[in-house]
User: What shape does this take?
Amino acid sequence: MKRFVFATLTASVLFLFSCDEIPPNIDFSVPYKTQDTTYIVSSAPVPQHKAVLIEDITGVRCVNCPEAAAEAAKIVANKTEDSVVVMALYTSQMNTLTLPWPGYPKLTNDISTEIVDVLGVPGDLPKGYVDRKIFAPLTERFVQYKSWGLYVDQRLKQSTPVNIEMSSAVAGRKINVNLKFQYTENVSGNHKYALYITEDDVVSKQTGGKPTPETYIHKHILRYAFGNSVGNPLNASLVVGRTFEKILSYELPAEYNMDNCRLICVISDVSSNEVINVREIHVK
Assistant: This one.
């Protein structure tokens, strides 16, 4: 009996210590770890300029999708380096356009499919979201790729109430990410953050790809989301000086080329999904 009591007490103590060491908002269903803290600084931080997110909804059997990718690249090239961020969503909703080619890398994944399920499934491709906003008089978020530049210009004229700082470090194939969000204005609504990994320069067959469809180079491929695909809640009052710090880590699968990977952090409105600010860095 004494041995049983001792073992029970020991297990209870170990459980309590383990709970103290692990933040309560860890999602154990995903293969990453996170540490969180939040506080308020006394002086208002200097506001960042707003950056804009283009999400290119695309597929490997879509003849005009390479034109959309080229349009996104042109928009990025015509802006300052950190003003426009691109993610390519290879979804599973439209198999005739997105079904992977046999013998080539699979670019579709559940994360891209979930994002499109939430934000709106277009009837054809290529289309995309600009800052996940519904632009009046439209009633859907997805827009033709030839209109992306117009909507990007509109969004770049907006300000943002939150700064995003991001850095990463690599140990083997483990990526450690430091995030810091600071509010420069009071916000009455609720915000959420999402952290994504994308990969560039993956060679795969592409209908309409040039110069040869079999060796088309795909860029900005969404590979992974830390937690919820469209964002994880920021659980605190969003007042001037509010600061969130987060440390996240993830073991990158062997099939992805780390040298070609980027981290994209998005802060968006909970009710509308509209992007409030976004930043991107290379994994390093």
